[in-house]
Please model this.
Amino acid sequence: GQQLNQSPQSMFIQEGEDVSMNCTSSSIFNTWLWYKQDPGEGPVLLIALYKAGELTSNGRLTAQFGITRKDSFLNISASIPSDVGIYFCAGQRTQGGSEKLVFGKGMKLTVNP
Amino acid sequence: DGGITQSPKYLFRKEGQNVTLSCEQNLNHDAMYWYRQDPGQGLRLIYYSQIVNDFQKGDIAEGYSVSREKKESFPLTVTSAQKNPTAFYLCASSIGTGPSNQPQHFGDGTRLSIL
Model:
């Protein structure tokens, strides 16, 4: 199955810095989702984007649904140690009459206090 | 509290054995999903179910089976035909799979290992 191109694969930053990550695809998606996963746990939904061009914030997180519907980015501002984890993007589209999710491989974030 | 419960947290399988992973949700969601996650990889869809008594194969269904006899339950069986079953298995649910585009929410996963 197809996977999204998520970059960077990992980042090491100092506490207080901002971080950006993005996902691209050759396919169009109806919805973009961003999840965070802590070790040994399931992904937790951070932000959901439903319209091309949409810019949405959730606290220190900001995400945008690309105008072409083939990409999305997530920004985290003023990082804190609890931001550590793996961030996944997921694109949702209709396939075979059902809504399917396609995931990126994840971006591992390390925040040095 | 409403949520998705997966059990057990850790599971060990001997060669040639079938094992069943449990997933229960009390969110009244119609759709449920099973994903497999390998180190450094994104999630890959094994099976999904849009409604009770109906389920569809995902991208990597070979060696797995599911049932959906109740709305709140979607157990996954890893059969002996699955030659590389060691992975982290995640169950998810959503209100539906229609164009309302409701996001999927995940359980905390089951880690399956081969003895």
